[in-house]
């Protein structure tokens, strides 16, 4: 289900994996990127489906067990977009986002190896204090209806 890209404010979005945050850019630019991916016809492969990027990353989170397949899907997406990039594709943002997701994926795998705990890869608010609130959000994304959390109004700061 495609959701509208109209955040209440223009927050910076980052990719969180393990305990590392990689800032990507403003939410509206990410919306344009994900629309360009959809418009490009990227399908991925059976072992690395596009849904790992277009649904799991965009709307939910990538569980640590799915990180290797997501990294393969990212590599395929990068190749696909260099061949069939829609004109609206923001190439600098594409590079920044795909690099940040790959770094966050590596951080998530390292966190699991070092501490035996899973910290999935997900898009979050990168600006403080919203990041501090967002990173503690329970992983209830699979029951999520409506826009992804990163497109919703910024969480309120604790008093």
SS class: alpha+beta
Largest sheet: 3 strands, antiparallel
Q: Tell me the number of structural domains.
A: 1
Based on the structure, what is the oligomeric state of the protein chains?
single chain
**Which blocks of ≥5 consecutive residues have pLDDT under 50?**
none
Question: How would you explain this protein's 3D organization?
Answer:
The structure is a single chain. Helices cover 45% and strands 13% of the residues. 34% of the residues are buried. The chain has one domain (12-151). By secondary structure, it is α+β, with helices and mostly antiparallel strands. Helix 3 (67-84) runs antiparallel to helix 4 (91-115). It has 5 helices and 5 strands. The strands form 2 sheets. A 3-stranded antiparallel beta sheet has the order 2-1-5. A two-stranded antiparallel ribbon has the order 3-4.
How are the SSEs ordered, and which strands pair?
Blueprint (H helix, E strand, L loop, with lengths): L11 E6 L2 E7 H14 L3 E2 L2 E2 L1 H9 L7 H18 L6 H25 L6 E4 L4 H5 L25
Antiparallel strand pairs: 1-2, 1-5, 3-4
Helix pairs in contact: 3-4
Tags for this model:
single chain; 159 residues; 5 strands; globular; alpha+beta
Can you describe this structure in just a few lines?
By secondary structure, the protein is an alpha+beta fold.
């Amino acid at each position: 289900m495609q959701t509208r890209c109209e955040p209440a404010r223009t927050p910076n979005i980052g990719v969180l994996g393990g305990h590392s945050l990689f800032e990507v850019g403003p939410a509206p630019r990410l919306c344009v990127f994900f629309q360009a991916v959809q418009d490009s016809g990227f399908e991925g492969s059976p072992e690395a489906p596009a849904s790992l990027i277009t649904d799991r990353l965009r709307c939910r989170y990538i569980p640590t067990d799915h990180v290797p397949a997501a990294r393969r899907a990212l590599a395929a997406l990068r190749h696909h977009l260099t061949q069939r990039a829609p004109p609206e594709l923001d190439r600098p943002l594409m590079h920044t986002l795909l690099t940040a997701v790959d770094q966050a994926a590596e951080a998530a795998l390292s966190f699991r190896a070092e501490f035996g705990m899973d910290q999935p890869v997900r898009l979050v608010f990168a600006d403080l204090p919203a990041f501090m609130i967002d990173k503690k959000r329970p992983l209830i994304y699979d029951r999520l209806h409506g826009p992804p959390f990163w497109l919703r109004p910024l969480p309120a700061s604790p008093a």
